[in-house]
Amino acid sequence: MNYHFRTAELSEIDSIWEILQQAIQRRKKDGSTQWQDGYPNPEVIQKDIEKGEGFVLADGETIIGYSAVLINDEPAYATIEGNWLTNDDFVVMHRVAISEKYLGKGLAKLMLKNIEDFALSNNIFSVKADTNFDNPAMMKIFETLGYIYCGEVFFRGSPRKAYEKVLHKQD
């Protein structure tokens, strides 16, 4: 397998949107309210990419995963019912999705590890994320990778479970 993680290009919006639509349908099938309100959408992805914040996981030339990766840019995280582990610079991930054809191969974990490497390469030692209360698969991935549950944050009026992982300098 030739997996690599890189910034997305505008020409890849259709492939990325297809992966996100699959994830939106999976969330719906699982009975989740997450991503069932017209968000995310192609305009959101286009903005991610234009700002240099859209990232893809690719298998050779094939896009198999997507995530927005932002530095210090999540106003909703300023207010948490609970406490973050750190108050320093942080990387935040949103819109994490893996292609249906590649599910069950540990690729969401691989993408999170790549996001952690991205943080470290920018001398940032905290990764923050959130997920819906009805997304046990994502919560399990966070817990497996050592993310700590910190409390609740609110997005578009809904509470979300907030997690943080403190990274350590590479030797």
Question: Hey, roughly how much beta strand do the residues contain?
Answer: 25-35%
The name CATH uses for the topology is: Aminopeptidase
Level of helix content? Answer: 25-40%
Total number of beta strands: 8
What is the CATH class designation?
Answer: Alpha Beta
Radius of gyration: 15 Å
Strand order of the largest sheet: 1-2-3-5-6-8-7-4
Helix and strand pattern: EHHEEEEHEHEE
Would you tell me the structural class of the helices and strands?
A: alpha+beta
- The DSSP helix count reads 4
Question: Which descriptor suits the 3D outline?
Answer: globular
- Ranges where pLDDT stays below 50 over 5 or more residues in a row are none
Number of domains: 1
Protein name: L-amino acid N-acyltransferase YncA
Domain N-acetyltransferase: 3-170
InterPro entries: Acyl_CoA_acyltransferase, GNAT_dom
Pfam family, one: Acetyltransf_1
How would you briefly describe this protein structure?
The chain has 171 residues and is α+β, with helices and mostly antiparallel strands.
Account of the 3D structure:
There is one protein chain. This protein is α+β, with helices and mostly antiparallel strands. The chain has helices spanning 13-29, 42-50, 107-121, 136-144; strands spanning 3-7, 54-59, 62-71, 81-82, 91-98, 126-131, 148-155, 158-166. It has 4 helices and 8 strands, in the order βααββββαβαββ. Helix content is 29%, strand content 32%. The radius of gyration is 15 Å and the shape is globular. Strands 1-2-3-5-6-8-7-4 form an 8-stranded mixed sheet. It has a single domain, classed as Aminopeptidase, CATH 3.40.630.30.
